[in-house]
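Human: For the file, kindly provide a plain-text protein record giving the amino acid sequence and the backbone structure tokens, at your earliest convenience.
Assistant:
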Amino acid sequence: MSETFNNTVAVAMSGGVDSSTVAAMLKDEGYELVGLTLQLWNQRRLAGKEGMPEEVQGRCCSIDDVYDARRVAETLGIPYYLLNEQERFEDQVVRPFVREYLAGRTPIPCSLCNNYLKFDQLLIRARQIGADRIATGHYARNEYDPERNRWILKRPADTSKDQTYFLFGLTQDQLSRTLFPLGTYTKPEVREIAKQHALALATKPDSQEICFIPGGDYKRFIDAYLDEQGEPMPDSSGELVSTTGEVIGHHHGIHNFTVGQRKGLGLSSPTPLYVIQIDNATNQVKVGSESETTIQTLRARDLNWISIPALGAPMRVKAKIRHRHDPAWATIEMSSNDEVLATFDEPQRAVTPGQSAVFYDGDEVVGGGWIV
């Protein structure tokens, strides 16, 4: 059931315009605020290694962001603390990311970070300083439904900034103790509010990349990280095969491929070829035509349900299989091995193991899991 909370809120301050504006808005509303920033990754750590950039600036979780967050806290006159969570971030986000990629899957670290750090650890630290709740700059909405006795996660007013795909793992306790003040605003409106509060970063660009991978070059990051750890790159070289099983080439490692990929296959063909499937047991990479990249069903595990306590009977939903995917109609039902089976009305392209499948009923997030 809905609880009564005190007036102290810990604001997760990333150093961007969204979280900074949240702090300004909540202060106007009379909340007692404490600013918290999680230091997750040392951007200089792999600089120059294995082709990595010598200098990385203007990135999420960078030193510049920490400085910006502290400056906003000073402007607003609220206490501010920097929390070092680098070791936990490496153990629970970076290492699983590297492990999944080497196994031929395409992980999504932002969801892991939200589940195990940005909400879990922030709530723990918030309670330690006397705050019952946290507030973040995510574009999402949450509300309590007394009829279902559940907290519901909903898409925001600005659907172009919708971040609910990355939040499917939030628990009922986390949702009950989180404020999403930007859920009813558009991004231009948020920037205008920041200007009205004379926040210096009102025009600061958004960060678009995974915070610990400059330029989005996953392979280069993995090479540099393994080199730093003194771990050899595992040999996952193998065959490139057609959908009929014919060997048509060889590759140097399954981590170089992702489902749906067209470029960089090292093959010449009169028609474009795409990665259809990656088999980490045999190191085979199956390739075929674009039409062969579509499938009608997927399985997902490690499920979390939000708008319902559990999935009983089959349910009609819209399923989203990657951040930029337009949710598609599907029927979901539980399988015998505690996985959900989603059957799409129309085949979907590049359903990728390691990504999330998130299910929607209108604006509500029903739940989600990890595609297998």
About this structure: The domain at 8-218 is CATH 3.40.50.620 (Rossmann fold). The longest helix spans residues 86-102.
